[in-house]
Design a protein that fits this description.
The structure is a homodimer of 431-residue chains. Chain A is α+β, with helices and mostly antiparallel strands and 431 residues long. The first copy, chain A, is built from 11 helices and 16 strands.
């Protein structure tokens, strides 16, 4: 295969990234929460810039912004690329924004260099992925893929009590505040909020993203070709013992909820290490009651976050560790309650696109590795619907969700070149 | 030796206990914090009742209340018995109050039955022991024994910002609010607050108390003869790791402060069990930062509370476990910081008085055991100054510091009888 894409200039992408970073609430790093003024201005800005880059722009009911390069041969299907525009509080300037900026730059480069594609290309800036303002995630891609249908907008509110619907209305979007799920109505001046079915016109989804981990940096590799996005299980584990006087209760007469939890946490770590990569298991929150230095803990609650790229392995590990917890609780005479919070299936990326990406790296002389994404991404919602792929570039120190998030211009440019190449192959060649 | 004390009627004591329980802030159980209106009324009530029982009452600079039965032979020395009147928030009606009520009933019984003692007897209701309102403990006995000298009253404040001195003044006590330690002055109408030296006239201190543990109940024994009050070490342990993404950080690249802490907590428990009674070791508080389910904990802080009745064993255990913590932190690449918070020496009770108490139990046919008090008590402050002794009675379920605190009238009466007997021996016999 020929390789006409080379030395894609990074200037357009870097300028877009630089300009996007300015749309932020005050404070360190970038804070751009869904349906806030800074979010609104960022999406407006993108539409202006994309129009200037020769793309046909539009927004949908929830505020996702698209820029299209219409194909000459196939026009009722699109190849979609992009990422999300929202951030965590005091986040960095690369998470999400990089994939959005690079996708637009790639389409611009392709149009300028090769003219109209055979198949339509579309860049997307998803309105939301992080779950930083409202207690849901993937609001942007979820409304495209059918995870959501819009009826959720009356049921979720931010910490100030503003509903999703009211926040949308404040941005001139079709959402209006309603009192409950499914209570959907049009208002004068507002567009009717359609309980949107999943879009059916997307034939492929490709997302470029920073790794948010340390694997590429540790291995001095430029590109990560994501084979799968890990499935995730979350639980809350409650351990019940007996609160008692730390001085008057002999060791042999204790039902110490914290000592039991410590044994479980160590078992979790040992089992996870034994299972090996890509399994990861984490307890990030743990609360002790009554939490007084001279009282034996009577109750402990902790979270479990367990991820793996293979559904079977994930299931087996979770069952095994919960069984081990039950054994520990039983031996110690502790009460055990496990509340499942979340279960997302692993999302395998498309094998053909992965192979194509690896070929591109080989041909361009870029170092790369096949890897699993432990973090969730918009791509996982497309995986069940169409071929989906993800490209990673290194994150300095593995740091993300922080003002210290950083990837060098050279690293960003390498990712852009790989993205542009795969888009060329998908949209410009008679494959 | 003759045993003239038998069948001490429990009515006076039980009535005092019942009446004392009414002096409480609203809410479950008994809440009687230092220098509050309910505390003030309780101490006033005791002075009235004690006067009615034939005792000579007085209060000291910090609000300890005394009732004296003056001896016929020795009048410049006193045998002191009692406990504290304050409670924890939502505490029970026995902790402290039992020792106060029983001591007054014992003195009353002795006077009625045997007339004036050879040596002066004194009942005390210490103003404070629990540390529930101000961040200090043993304020009552501490001012008697020289732990405090009164200068502390400008330096400690409750959660509402009221200083100890201001709270004293509100009860008509000599304390006035001052801006700093040692800034002591008299005010019109107030007594001058004397930086009191320790009292030198106390020749023995005997305290009757509920066990606040489950050992007597488990062993179906009526009386605990306390051989020593455990020494105590408290520490805050800070573990530093690296906060990182729970999904993107492989198990092998983590510095998980919580997993390291779990290993330490298990080591603590294992070592404490291996050491055996009376050593107890507890982590009652543990805090995780940032405390987010999908973030590997970057920092953990936890408390250590370690007690033993032998100073050497306590020292050896603490050094050993902190060394083990250092080893765990080192192997895991975690930062470790240990802040000593508190170190009190074990307080051995007087061997002669312990032997006398055991003899009394034998003669009265009461089941008893020698034991260590894991909890702190006013008696520990007297142990370095004069012969001190403690008598325990069972606590139902080992429960204390709770509205559910309970000891039966029969159990309370048994303790009263033993207390009365030892006081008789000390004050009425030519020993």
């Amino acid at each position: 295969m020929n390789m006409p894409v080379h030395n894609v200039p990074a200037g357009v992408m870097l300028a877009l990234l630089e300009e996007l970073a300015a749309f932020s609430a005050p404070g360190p790093g970038v804070t751009r929460l869904l349906y806030t003024p800074e979010w609104y201005r960022a999406q407006q800005f993108l539409q202006e810039r994309w129009a200037g880059l020769g793309l046909k722009v539009r927004t949908d009911e929830v505020g996702n912004v698209y820029g299209t390069l219409t194909g000459s041969k196939v026009t009722d299907k699109v190849i979609l690329t992009g990422s999300h525009i929202d951030t965590v509080v005091n986040g960095g300037r690369y998470d999400g924004a990089y994939g959005v900026a690079a996708a637009a730059a790639a389409l611009h480069y392709l149009q300028v260099t090769f003219g109209q594609p055979l198949r339509s290309l579309e860049v997307v800036s998803f309105c939301e992925e992080e779950g930083s303002r409202f207690p849901l995630t993937f609001w942007g891609s979820g409304n495209v893929t059918g995870l959501y249908n819009g009826s959720e907008r009356g049921s979720f509110a931010d910490v100030d009590g503003v509903t999703l619907g009211a926040a949308m209305a404040a941005c001139g979007l079709g959402g209006i505040e309603t009192s409950g799920v499914g209570d959907i109505a049009a208002t004068e001046g507002g567009r009717e909020f359609t309980s949107s079915p999943a879009r059916r016109d997307i034939t492929a989804y490709i997302e470029l993203h920073i790794e948010q981990g340390i694997i590429l940096e540790r291995n001095s590799q430029e590109i990560g070709v994501v084979q799968a996005i890990a499935g995730q299980r979350r639980y809350i584990v409650k351990i019940g013992g007996t609160a008692n006087h730390a001085g008057t209760t002999p060791m042999g007469l204790r039902r110490d909820a914290l000592a039991g939890s410590a044994e479980m946490l160590l078992a979790l770590e040992r089992s996870a290490v034994a299972e090996g990569d890509p399994l990861v298991a984490t307890t990030g929150r743990l609360e002790v009651h009554p939490g007084t230095p001279n009282v034996i803990p009577g109750e402990v609650q902790f979270t479990l976050d367990i991820r793996h790229s293979e559904a079977g392995n994930l299931e087996r590990f979770c069952s095994g560790i919960l069984e081990e917890f039950a054994g520990i609780a039983g031996r110690r005479g502790l009460d055990l309650e496990v509340l499942p919070l979340l279960a997302t299936a692993p999302a395998p990326m498309d094998k053909g696109m992965c192979a194509a990406l690896e070929q591109i790296c080989e041909k361009q002389g870029k170092s790369y590795r096949s890897m699993v994404s432990g973090a969730g991404h918009d791509a996982q919602l497309f995986a069940p619907l169409c071929p989906a792929a993800m490209i990673f570039v290194p994150s300095r120190g593995g740091i993300s969700h922080s003002p210290d998030e950083y990837s060098s211009p050279e690293e960003l440019a390498a990712g852009l070149e790989v993205l542009t190449s795969i888009l060329y192959e998908l949209a410009y060649t008679e494959n």
